[in-house]
Amino acid sequence: MQRPVLPRSYVLVIAEKPRAAQKIAQALGGCFAKMLRIRGIPVWLVKWRGQDYVIASAAGHLYALHTDEKGYPVFSFRWVPRYLVDNNAKHTKRFLEVLKALSKNAILYVNACDYDIEGSLIGYLIIEHLGDTRRAKRARFSSLTAQEVIRAFTNLTSLDMNMVEAGYCRHALD
User: Fold this and answer.
1) Is it the case that residue 2 has pLDDT exceeding 60?
2) At residue 138, what are phi and psi to the nearest 5 degrees?
3) Nearest to 147 by CA among 33, 46, 50, 27
4) 25: CB partners within 8 A, 6+ apart
5) Roughly how many angstroms between the first and final C-alpha of the chain, as a whole number?
6) Strands across the sheet with 106-111, in order?
7) Contact, 61 vs 113, CB < 8 A?
8) What is the mean pLDDT of residues 11-27?
9) Cα–Cα distance for residue pair 13/144, rounded to 1 Å
10) Distance, CA of 23 to CA of 55 (rounded, Å)
């Protein structure tokens, strides 16, 4: 069997976890969804409504707030790859590298992480650091049933910046 090859350009869909990426791919591509592994990370290829989609995932939070300041309170911090500051997050490095490579040929980015404050922030940070938020949309679904996923992708919206800001504030306060 021939290994699937990435299309020249595509919509990059970012799911929060690998299982969610698989369910989104199956909803959009049905039995025609093709899975390949990049650096051991599953990535799904589908054609939906005549457009190529690459569906990849994070592994939860790939970025964390970090500061070089000592003491309290801290007013200066920045987002950095989580694996750099959290020894328990070393596995996230491969996910970030795969998403970085896939971002290069994306014509549109879709945040398809969980539709909550954390999912909004996870997807946004990936797009902000690796892609282009001006070419980004949000898929809003409450469950990963095929019907909900198709409805969400038929009705993509702009990024949910209020939820992103709420997630940012929660992390800054923590």
Assistant:
1) no
2) -120, 130
3) 27
4) 33, 35, 44, 45, 46, 53, 55
5) 49
6) 34-38, 41-48, 51-57, 10-15, 106-111, 136-138
7) no
8) 98
9) 14
10) 10
3-state secondary structure the chain: CCCCCCCCCEEEEEECCHHHHHHHHHHHHHHHCEEEEECCEEEEEEEECCEEEEEEECCCCCEEEECCCCCCCCCCCEEEEHHHCCHHHCCHHHHHHHHHHHHCCEEEEEECCCCCHHHHHHHHHHHHHHCCHHHEEECCCCCCCHHHHHHHHHCCECCCHHHHHHHHHHHHHC
pLDDT at res. 75: 74
Q: Which amino acid is at 115?
A: Y
Query: For 116-156, what is each residue's pLDDT tens digit?
Result: 999 999 999 999 999 999 999 999 999 999 999 999 999 99
Residues pairing with 80 in the sheet: 64
